[in-house]
């Protein structure tokens, strides 16, 4: 016969369950309801204190815990919890005797010794802290093993570290700390990022309040470009620990990458409020300020970062990357002094060189500008991986798969919507200008550079046992698969949209090889190809230090080869999809804005609107390097900039001359 669980025990279990499920407000309600009838129950008062701590109501928690100790002064867990509440308020001197009392009453408390060590370290009693940590480790062999594993990982002995953490998990399968460190070792050791993600998700499920695991999960999700999931992970960190500068900074980064710059700004402001002037955080904050159009605030943040770290070349380059900004003579002199230093890191030196290239160009000292751009690119090329022949091989396979026969056989079977307008091309070819023109239309939302199409292609064939993936795997897709991918694309893009406008832009220049697939899954989507004189395109890319990707831009021959492949791919799409893609030449847009705007809108099936001619008045976030330029009226000073560096461009003239000959006259003669 089953014995009924006493009311008190059942009530305690309910409160504990709510705390484990990260529902502290419900746990508080359960405890307060019970305490209304039983005000002297120290177990419930303690749980109430923990629920209040989880809600960041630490002062209230302290009051409840002190009351419980007045009723039961020898309750060791109450002393530990009171110490935790005091430590959270940075009252470490008061917290230390509470932890010591807890250990005295119950030496085997799992975490009290560790908390004591942390409090001692916080007030500078390092020797006492070391002793406390030693006691903590000696009493728990698994933790000692984890510390050994962490040391191996930091020494980049990943295989040995993985073996240590797996051994811990064999003995203790639910050790979430071991799960987290094993995940980090697998991730950083390039031994399986998917397994690392699974381990971190398991750890956060088993211990919903394990902030460190949520933080690591957020970082990993950012690397694999699951930005929306990363937002959720970092948001969890900030709820568990509202004073976590890392959590707020991570949230800012995730919001920024997911195209929510206003939210990113607020998250970074919270991180800066907590941690002060951390250069990397200030720089990221400035980037988001620039994105929403607040250049003055961005410059202030960049200069704060430089003040905090004078050799922070990234901030100088980021200011240069504002494009319409000019350095002061004093700032130029500081940068010139920095590049003479022998103790700069490689990346610091590269940042300064690109920034100096921009500074010298603004002073019209084109020889020195070329020197800094060219040497900066040569050094950056040594830090990235790029194999031109592999790229050419991939492009050729795409053209073989998406031939006229396949595209005709599967015509019209995809998802039947007109919503997206794909804007493709190459970096620095005017795609942001085209996007801004479209985003100024009352029926079009500008969503910037989305990675949705790429993620879908990367998923094709993932679970096939024969190893056939995209693009070859497209041949085996059924009509309903193509429709499903089109629907998935629209639904995923919806997460990045904030208006109810019927059309939206997807401006990711490097999507150009995927336009055949885009046409199959979304046969009524619009495609625009932004073009510019190849020398200006290549020069614009050569002058740009990209945050990530675009590894083909740091060598003049690589750039020429990539442009050749782009040109060949677009000619292929024009041949197999006649009339589908509109080429928009930057030079023609600059010299005949209204004519080109009418062409663009007609191609999209949109009525002409005057607002599109005043695109620079449209208030929206712009993530790309052209963000400040598209907030100005049209100007012709950027036409034919390559002529300033003409004597250095023989490689491009040799490799790309035949493409130049095919350009419209206005493009060929730009800058004359």
For the structure shown, list the relevant keywords.
single chain, 672 residues, mainly alpha, Rossmann fold, 5 strands
Q: Figure out the total of helices.
A: 34
Looking at the structure, what is the overall shape? Answer: globular
The CATH architecture classification of the domain at 411-451 and 491-668 is 3-Layer(aba) Sandwich
Q: Could you describe the largest sheet, including whether it forms a barrel?
A: 5 strands, parallel
Quaternary organization? single chain
What portion of residues is helical? Answer: 55-70%
The strand line-up of the biggest sheet is: 2-3-1-4-5
Straight-line distance between termini? 98 Å
The whole-number mean of residue pLDDT values reads 90
Poorly predicted runs: 620-631
CATH topology of the domain at 411-451 and 491-668: Rossmann fold
What is the β-strand count?
A: 5
How would you describe the overall organization of this protein?
The chain has a domain at 411-451 and 491-668: P-loop containing nucleotide triphosphate hydrolases (Rossmann fold, 3-Layer(aba) Sandwich). Helix content is 62%, strand content 4%. It contains 34 helices and 5 strands. It has helices at residues 7-20, 24-37, 42-54, 58-71, 76-88, 92-105, 112-122, 126-138, 141-154, 158-171, 176-188, 193-206, 211-223, 227-240, 245-257, 261-275, 279-291, 295-308, 313-320, 329-338, 346-362, 366-381, 388-401, 404-409, 431-439, 452-459, 479-494, 515-521, 534-542, 556-576, 586-591, 593-604, 650-661, 665-668, and strands at 420-425, 444-446, 503-507, 526-531, 581-585. A 5-stranded parallel beta sheet has the order 2-3-1-4-5, with helices on both faces. Helix 20 packs antiparallel against helix 21 (346-362) and helix 21 runs antiparallel to helix 22 (366-381). The longest helix is centred in the last third of the chain and has 21 residues, at 556-576. It is globular. The N and C termini lie far apart (98 Å).
């Amino acid at each position: 016969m089953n014995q009924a669980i006493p009311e008190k025990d059942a009530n305690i279990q309910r409160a504990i369950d709510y705390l484990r499920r990260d529902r502290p407000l419900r746990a508080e309600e359960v405890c307060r309801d019970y305490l209304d009838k039983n005000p002297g129950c120290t177990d419930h008062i303690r749980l109430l204190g923990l629920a209040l701590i989880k809600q960041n109501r630490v002062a209230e928690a302290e009051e409840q815990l002190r009351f419980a100790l007045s009723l039961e002064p020898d309750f060791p867990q109450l002393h530990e919890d009171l110490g935790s509440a005091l430590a959270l308020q940075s009252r470490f001197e008061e917290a230390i005797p509470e932890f010591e009392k807890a250990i005295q009453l119950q030496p085997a408390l799992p975490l009290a010794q560790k908390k004591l060590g942390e409090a001692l370290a916080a007030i500078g009693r390092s020797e006492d802290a070391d002793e406390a940590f030693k006691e903590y480790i000696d009493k728990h062999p698994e933790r000692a093993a984890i510390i050994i594993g962490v040391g191996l990982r930091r020494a980049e002995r990943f295989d040995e570290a993985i073996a240590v953490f797996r051994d811990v998990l064999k003995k203790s399968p639910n050790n979430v700390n071991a799960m987290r460190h094993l995940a980090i070792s697998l991730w950083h050791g390039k031994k399986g990022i998917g397994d690392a993600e699974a381990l971190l998700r398991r750890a956060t499920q088993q211990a919903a309040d394990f902030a460190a695991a949520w933080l690591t999960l957020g970082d990993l999700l950012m690397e694999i470009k699951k930005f929306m999931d990363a937002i959720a992970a970092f948001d969890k960190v900030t709820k568990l620990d509202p004073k976590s500068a890392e959590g707020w900074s991570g949230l800012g980064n995730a919001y920024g990458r997911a195209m929510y710059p206003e939210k990113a700004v607020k998250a970074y402001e919270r991180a800066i409020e907590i941690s002060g002037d951390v250069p990397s955080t200030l720089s990221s904050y400035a980037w988001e300020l620039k994105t929403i159009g607040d250049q003055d605030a961005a410059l202030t943040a960049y200069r704060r970062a430089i003040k905090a770290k004078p050799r922070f070349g990234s901030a100088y380059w980021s200011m240069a990357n504002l494009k319409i900004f000019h350095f002061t003579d004093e700032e130029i002199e500081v940068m010139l002094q920095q590049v003479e230093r022998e103790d700069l890191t490689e990346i610091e030196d590269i940042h300064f060189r690109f920034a100096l290239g921009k500074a010298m160009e603004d002073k019209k000292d084109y020889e020195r500008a070329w020197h800094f751009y060219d040497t900066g690119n040569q050094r950056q090329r040594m830090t990235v991986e790029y194999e031109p022949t592999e790229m050419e091989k991939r492009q050729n396979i795409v053209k073989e798969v998406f031939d006229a026969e396949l595209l005709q056989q599967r015509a019209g079977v995809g998802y039947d919507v007109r919503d997206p307008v794909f804007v493709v091309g190459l970096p620095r070819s005017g795609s942001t200008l085209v996007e801004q023109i479209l985003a100024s239309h009352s029926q079009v939302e500008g969503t910037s550079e989305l990675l949705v199409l790429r993620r879908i292609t990367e998923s094709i064939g993932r679970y096939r046992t024969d190893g056939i993936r995209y693009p070859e795997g497209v041949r085996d897709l059924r009509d309903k698969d193509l429709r499903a991918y089109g629907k998935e694309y629209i639904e995923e893009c919806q997460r990045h949209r904030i208006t109810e406008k019927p059309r939206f832009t997807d401006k990711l220049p490097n999507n150009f090889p995927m336009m055949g697939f885009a046409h199959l899954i979304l046969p009524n989507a619009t495609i625009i190809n932004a073009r510019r004189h190849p020398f200006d395109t290549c020069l614009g890319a050569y002058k740009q230090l990209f945050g990530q990707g675009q590894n083909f831009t740091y060598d003049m021959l690589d750039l020429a080869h990539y442009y050749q492949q782009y040109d060949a791919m677009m000619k292929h799409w024009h041949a197999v999809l006649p009339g589908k893609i509109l080429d928009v030449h930057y030079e023609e847009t600059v010299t005949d804005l209204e004519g080109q705007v009418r062409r663009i809108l007609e191609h999209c099936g949109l009525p002409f609107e005057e607002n599109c001619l005043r695109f620079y008045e449209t208030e929206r976030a712009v993530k790309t390097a052209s963000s400040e330029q598209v907030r100005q009226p049209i100007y012709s000073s950027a036409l034919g900039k390559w002529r300033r560096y003409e004597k250095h461009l023989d490689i491009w003239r040799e490799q790309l001359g035949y493409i130049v000959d095919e350009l419209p006259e206005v493009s060929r003669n730009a800058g004359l």
